[in-house]
Amino acid sequence: MPHTAITNEDLPDRVDWRDHHAVTSVKNQGHCGACWAFVAAGAVEGITAIKTGKLEDLSPQMLVDCDKANLGCRCGESWRALDFIKKNRIATDRNYPYDGIQRRCHMRADGLSRFASIEGFHVVYSGEKALMAAVAVQLVIVEIGLDIYFHYY
């Protein structure tokens, strides 16, 4: 989506992208450590829905299998997944379903249409107001770094 500048005065009191039909159902990654793939696919689902009016489940499995900048079910970075989607597009979950196991990539298989892409992405570092401005325009990915002590919370 094009960059849209929003001032602090223009920020809405509330944004819920479910009200705009830009959020798909909750997913279960199972035992595969693919949270990075799910959030990247989810963000692109929402951005595509905002832009086109068509909400479609996209394929975290394609990212797990094919995005070699990440480590499949072991771990990954959502920004690397977004970069992969920018360069390669992403299939629908219907065409490349999730099974929670890293397998050989088959994105070049005949008949595999890739549904969505992005032109780019921005990283927001500058605080709560900047994050609120980004959320006002489109869905965002928020990552939280945790240490071992969080498990005891």
Automatic annotation (TrEMBL):
Key words, A-Z: Disulfide bond
Tagged with keyword Disulfide bond: yes
Chain ranges of the Peptidase C1A papain C-terminal domain: 11-151
GO function terms (MF aspect): cysteine-type peptidase activity
Entry superkingdom: Eukaryota
InterPro entries: Papain-like_cys_pep_sf, Peptidase_C1A, Peptidase_C1A_C, Peptidase_C1A_papain-like
Gene3D superfamilies linked: Cysteine proteinases (3.90.70.10)
GO biological process: proteolysis
Transmembrane parts of this sequence: none
UniProt KW Kinase keyword: no
Record family assignment: Belongs to the peptidase C1 family.
Name of the protein in question: Peptidase C1A papain C-terminal domain-containing protein
Organism: Triticum urartu (Red wild einkorn)
Lineage, top ranks: Eukaryota, Viridiplantae, Streptophyta, Embryophyta, Tracheophyta
